[in-house]
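User: I'm putting together notes for a lab meeting next week and I want to include a structural view of one of the chains we've been expressing. I don't have a solved structure, so I'd like a prediction I can at least talk through. The sequence is below, exactly as it appears in our construct file.
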Amino acid sequence: MKVEYINPFIQSVCDLFDTMLSSKATRCGVGLANGGLNTRDIVAIIGLSGEARGMVALSFPTQTALAMVGRMLGTELHIVDETVYDGLAELVNMVAGSSKAKFASFVSTPIELSLPTVIRGSDFSVNHPSKATWLDVPFTSDLGTFNLRVTFELNRVKGVTV
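Assistant: Thanks for the context. Below is the predicted structure for the 162-residue chain, given as structure tokens.
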């Protein structure tokens, strides 16, 4: 994965915080992810396909997930339930959807999104193809810490096979 491909995803997270959560997310670096996706309590993940393929994941401690969905809904949440799962699925969907629009200059056909999946617990791993490289971007915000993880590659660049 080319590092410049992460920028639309980072910008989409920042835009989401500005517009939907009335908050600010601050990136704390970019690095290669080590191992599976279970670095937090809850992970929302969505697949990308077409000329660009990969996955986007947002991983949260429980308190951050509750705070973000609560802010989005304008209420205080105390337990993780279907409302929280649906909210986290929508957050990762918004990040991926906004990012795919930013890739219009790289691809000749739109990127397709899968349905988002939300995973909760500490005893799981998400396996991916062995050659996939995940970039990990930790964030801080007034709603808590969280991570953006992305694996992404272009199959074609404006009609040229990569």
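A couple of points you could mention at the meeting. The chain has one domain: 3-161. The two ends are 12 Å apart (CA to CA).

User: Perfect, that's what I needed.
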